[in-house]
Amino acid sequence: FFCRLRKTKQRFSQTAMATSNDQQQLDMLRQNIADTQNKLATWIEAQKQAVLAGKENHRAALSSTSKDIHSTQQTIQQLQKKKEQNESVARKNQQEVAALDSDIASLQKTESAVQDKKTALQAKHEALQAQVAALDEEVKQEQLRALREVEATGCGKDLYQKHLGLQFQKASDSAMRFLMTYVDANEEGREFSVTLSVLPDGLYEVTSTRPAVDTKDLLAELNRTNNLGPFVRGIRARFQALCD
Q: pTM to 2 decimals?
């Protein structure tokens, strides 16, 4: 009996020891489970926070992308509007270029016509210049002939010299000197003179007067009318005015 009792006691002791070991293992298992649950909860929370942060970043990125899309759409609209304006300006410029080309063609035709007219007028001008030169030479020769006739007309010379104290002297081939007396009432024999020459262009020129008097207006009238009589009378009157 005691042997059986001892064996039974030993079995109970072994069972108690086994139970204690199992309890320790169970406690360790529970602790491991608790640690695992804590780690899992921490991981889940971290993943949740990461997901929330990613969601917030995605929302911010989506908002920024929406703004970029809106800005891009506005830029596209502005560019489209600018494109339409440029196309309108280009069409207008093309119309202006076409109008300018038409104007240039018209001006070129006008220029050609004007050039032809200019050539014709130039030829006519040259012909007129030749005629004027011939007329100038004819006038010059006529003036020289008149001066020579005055010089050569004996009766005229005597008449002028007798009544007016006027004498004609040849100063050169193209110049005549007019000598006057009976000008100064206080000295009838006092001589006054004016020398008149013919220039290459056919105009008269007073080269000298003695004494000096102004002859510009008389000379201008002589060149206008080609009449020596009024010129000589005008000169004589101015000489007489000096004596008064």
A: 0.39
